[in-house]
Amino acid sequence: MPAVELDKLRIPGVLQRFSLTYLFLALMVTAFARVDDNQKAKHLSPFRDVLLYWPEWFLNFALLAVHIGITFALPVPGCPTGYLGPGGISEGGQYYNCTGGAAQYVDKMVLGDSHLYQHPTVKEDYKTKIPFDPEGILGIPTSIFLCFLGLQAGRIIVQYPSHKERIFRWTVYTIAT
């Protein structure tokens, strides 16, 4: 059995992303924990599902802002700013080594090429040469936000006993996001 080569070990992955997402959310919920009586909080209705947790909302929107800022404003050498495409032969090969744009660049700078996924689907489909990890660092903030929305959906179940209120809020969240 071959030995594991630590200098080539893939660091990002689905389970790693899950663990970092859940760790962040657990720390956030713990840091902003509050003891509330749902009956006392009813005076905040119909916005208590947001108002009671405003620091968490703020933090999550700040994470999204950082993600968007890096994705669309980080200059990537040899690539147009904000490029999100597959690179390779896409667009006539104009952006050949730009696979993943800022996401790939951040992963490369932080982790190095040898720790990224070496055989992504895009490599075969678009004839790219560079490694690209679809579970890279820049995807973590959006995963955190998505899980936060799931947490909020659960809070709605706890705070609003009526099916009508729950469905209304979930519909608003769906339209807003």
From TrEMBL:
Keyword Transmembrane helix attached: yes
Coiled coil, from the record: none
Transmembrane segments: 20-36, 57-76, 136-158
Record keywords: Membrane, Transmembrane, Transmembrane helix
Keyword Transmembrane: yes
Protein name: Heparan-alpha-glucosaminide N-acetyltransferase catalytic domain-containing protein
Organism listed in the record: Octopus bimaculoides (California two-spotted octopus)
Taxon lineage: Eukaryota, Metazoa, Spiralia, Lophotrochozoa, Mollusca
